[in-house]
Amino acid sequence: MSVSTRKILHIDMDAFYASVEQRDNPALRGKPVVVAWRGARSVVCAASYEARPFGVRSAMPAVRAERLCPQAIFVPPDFTRYKAVSRQIREIFARHTDLIEPLSLDEAYLDVTTTKSGLGSATATAEAIRAAIREETGLTASAGVAPNKFLAKIASDHRKPDGLFVVRPHQVDAFLLPLKVGRLPGVGKVMEAKLTELGITTVAQLRTLPLAEMEQRFGRWGRRLHELSLGIDHHPVQPERPSVQVSAEDTFEHDLRLDELEPHIRRLAEKTWAGHQREAGRVARTIVLKLKTADFQTLTRSLTPASRPGSAQELADIACALRSRVERPADSRYRLVGVGLSGFVDADEYTAQTDLFGPVPGG
């Protein structure tokens, strides 16, 4: 099996928001910390490692987190502070390579096939980055090193927190084949259940399914799944460039109805707004709501209002309202939701739309 000759890192900060809070407030260290607003509509942005043994996880409703861990200390998120730390971390990355693809404030892919720092290997580069993050920010990061992006991402989770795991080209099969299929990107609980019905629980078993059968059952996603089972991922690291869209999305552990999505939409709107704020001198005009149904159909609904949203709350309000344009039975369930901003223009050229309900891109 041929694998890429690229050397890819996936760097993932450990419990990032909660770790920043514990770093900046010594009274929180060693305590179960939940970064979330209190309230029925709030969801968990991050949970410290002390909170996780109680079952607290990011994206769960805050009221459930409070039931699971009554002694948890709730801290409202401070995205301005998190963004400042994220910029510090990006500066560390940039000492080694210009090929940096941020996924969020707390994780990124780096292509270190060739480095500016001249370190002898991808492993040495990952170790240097982790050491600099610890020394300069007081935080820890986990890293995965692999020949491609998806393997690096899985590897970075292998020894969390504060870990490093390396998958060399000749080790791909030994690493990949024993894994549960749920570890592959895009394989959520629903897809995992579908594969289990076929007797497929590991990547090794998935690899035995013929490509033609995979495509017949799952369409284009079947081909992608087949490639992943072979350890193939040709997607390059995409450095930051003028954005076509800034977005955040989540795949749920259990499929949800449309009327259950509001807290998730509001949390994702916060992340999207934080990403939009990094687009210096550019503004987005169009709000996008993305949904993926339980049977893997992707729906998008979008709106270009006369006046663009001025805050994360306004973005969330519009994205929530876009649910009314989803013409499906009320009991339909969804495995993924995303919130995006698109239609970027230079700030000094921005002209508000005149018709609130005019033609809408992607609607």
Automatic annotation (TrEMBL):
Q: Where in the cell is it found?
A: Cytoplasm
**What does the record say about how the cofactor binds?**
Binds 2 magnesium ions per subunit.
Active-site residues, Swiss-Prot/TrEMBL: E107
Which positions does the site annotation Substrate discrimination cover? Answer: Y17
One Pfam family this sequence matches = IMS
Q: Which reaction does it catalyse?
A: DNA(n) + a 2'-deoxyribonucleoside 5'-triphosphate = DNA(n+1) + diphosphate
Q: How does it assemble?
A: Monomer.
Q: What is this protein called?
A: DNA polymerase IV
Q: Which organism is it from?
A: Dyella ginsengisoli
The gene that this protein is the product of is: dinB
